[in-house]
Write a structure and sequence with these properties.
The structure is a homodimer of 168-residue chains. Chain A is mainly alpha-helical and 168 residues long. Chain A is 71% helix and 7% strand. The first copy, chain A, has a 3-stranded antiparallel beta sheet with strand order 1-3-2. In chain A, helix 2 (25-35) packs across helix 4 and helix 3 (43-50) crosses helix 4 (54-67). Chain A starts with a helix and ends with a helix. The mean pLDDT of chain A is 96. Chains A and B meet through helix 1, helix 5, helix 6 and helix 7 of A and helix 1, helix 5, helix 6 and helix 7 of B. Chain A binds a DNA duplex (30 and 30 nucleotides) through helix 4.
DNA sequence: TTTAATTTTCAGAAAAGATTGAAAATTCAG
DNA sequence: CTGAATTTTCAATCTTTTCTGAAAATTAAA
């Protein structure tokens, strides 16, 4: 397989994977591109390489900066902004996991807790089953969430490292 | 909070969470509805409750059956099909995790492996960085995948249980 | 069989989500 | 400052995904 072919497939597949897991395709592809680039790239370079508009490129980069998995890098004598990806798989995987856990899972945890605690005492069969399932889900997600926090927030990914060593 | 209010919020939130993680909203909501229902429900009941079309309800149910987290149940003296959700959080969470791992992550693992093994020897800086990142990603996902398989496939969710007990 | 009930399919409609591109805002060298 | 370079914003457009509803297929009671 030629480099260009492998590269194309990689970027394409990374974008598809993103879509399937709720990450915008362009964003995933920009990360892929930056990940395999040895030098920092400009917005223009990214636009050209991925054939996307300036607006799209800019938004995607912002999002990646926001997630903390892409950094700005200024180049002496050039006014343009350059961007470089976090290259350490462990680091960026944990950051993505953490961001998504905090932003998307935590609100659900809060709702489950709220429903568990504040719903009127169950009387009918429907109400009892509802209470039961929400409670179980609450306990379960609580535990998973707690594990996730440990894994994602332990410095240096030490927790994930330990896990993999122990179980994988 | 009233039961009806809690129920509505729960179903709504579950749908939203699904969307964010690449699961169709209707599918997630049908699961939510079945999950909290003490009896099996018919397609018509689901349509009415969630205000969705017959086609949508039917497709959603098929998908859930396909994932193995909803079962058919026949009711004596009624020709209609009834459906009931897998109620054990552990069971269905592991099944969903497993199905998605196999269908969406495994192809990526295969591609990474393929690229790693079959790409022409790297010569330029670009090519070297590409090879390096793909290799790292390959190792990393291999390990994560192996852990995931253990967690998802150990009977009775014993592995996840152990993990939670140890680390959460 | 026949036929009425039920389920499935799928073309087209609607909604959601992604992308563009040009105007506005910002930045900074001179 | 000035103005050219660069970045950001966002309404309009395009694409993809989801959903509908009615026709076709299937099922099973009579």
């Amino acid at each position: 397989m030629k480099y260009s072919e492998g590269k194309e497939k990689f970027i394409e597949t990374w974008g598809t994977l993103g879509s399937q897991w709720g990450v915008n395709k362009s964003i995933a592809q920009v990360q892929a591109l930056l990940l395999i680039s040895p030098q920092p790239l400009t917005t223009d370079h990214i636009m050209e390489e991925l054939k996307i508009s300036r607006g799209n490129a800019n938004m995607s980069i912002r999002q990646l900066l926001d997630w903390g998995i892409v950094y700005k890098k200024s180049v002496a004598g050039d006014r343009k902004e350059y961007f470089i990806a976090e290259k350490d798989v462990w680091k960026w995987a944990l950051k993505i996991g953490n961001v998504r856990k905090q932003r998307e899972l935590n609100p659900v945890l809060d709702l489950l807790k709220d429903i568990s605690e504040n719903t009127d005492k169950a009387k009918t069969a429907e109400e009892k089953e509802f209470a039961k399932q929400v409670k179980e889900l609450n306990v379960f997600t609580q535990q998973l969430g707690s594990l996730a926090d440990k894994v994602f927030l332990t410095p240096g990914g030490a927790m994930l490292f330990k896990l993999l060593k122990m179980f994988a």
